[in-house]
Structures are given as C-alpha cells and as structure tokens.
Amino acid sequence: MAPAHSHDHYEETIYGLNGVITFTVDGMPIDIGPGQVLCIPRGAIHRFDNNGNVEMKGFCAVTPAHLGPEFFREAAAIYSAAVAGPPDRGKLMDLMRRNGITPSLQPPAA
Would you identify the CATH topology of the domain 1-66? Predict the structure, then answer.
C-alpha cells in the first residue's frame, strides 16, 4: 500500500502487465489488470493497493520526466526494511517531499 498523495508537476500513467492493482483516485477505486491503463492527472489525490494474492507488475510513466531510478531504489529500501510491519512512514514522507510528491493528510475515500 502506498500513502495517499498527489503531484503537481507531472501526470502518472500506469500500464498493467501482471496481476491486478487497485488505484483510488480522488475517491474512486479503479482496478488495473494486464493490458489496462490508467492516467492520473496532476493534483489528483491517489493511492494504490494490491488487494489480491498475486504480485502485480506494471509499467509506470511520469510525464514530464521527474522521478529517476534513485527515487525507486530508495523507496524499495524503505519497504524492504519493513520486515515485521509497515514501512517507516516518516522516511516515506521525507522521500516523497524531496521528490515533488505531496503526501495527503487523509487517504481518498474508497
């Protein structure tokens, strides 16, 4: 599960490759499976959850390009360090803010 957030400087487009992931965008849940695509506009509060038991794989494009490989490496390290519970929320919020992502104070309604 990713913390609810928005980004003011770019759109995010997700293309499903394997499994199903549920994005909640401005309160509306949207399932993305193989071959399906979702574009999240700038400023939309969103989050994603894998509610199934199959690993989801997808392709994510940020337009215009803003996030680089280091962002994803650091995010993966934070999630990997969470062995016995959720990831360190403070570290996630810091990473998000440093990369132009605005954490939402409240998750969008499901």
Answer: Jelly Rolls (2.60.120)
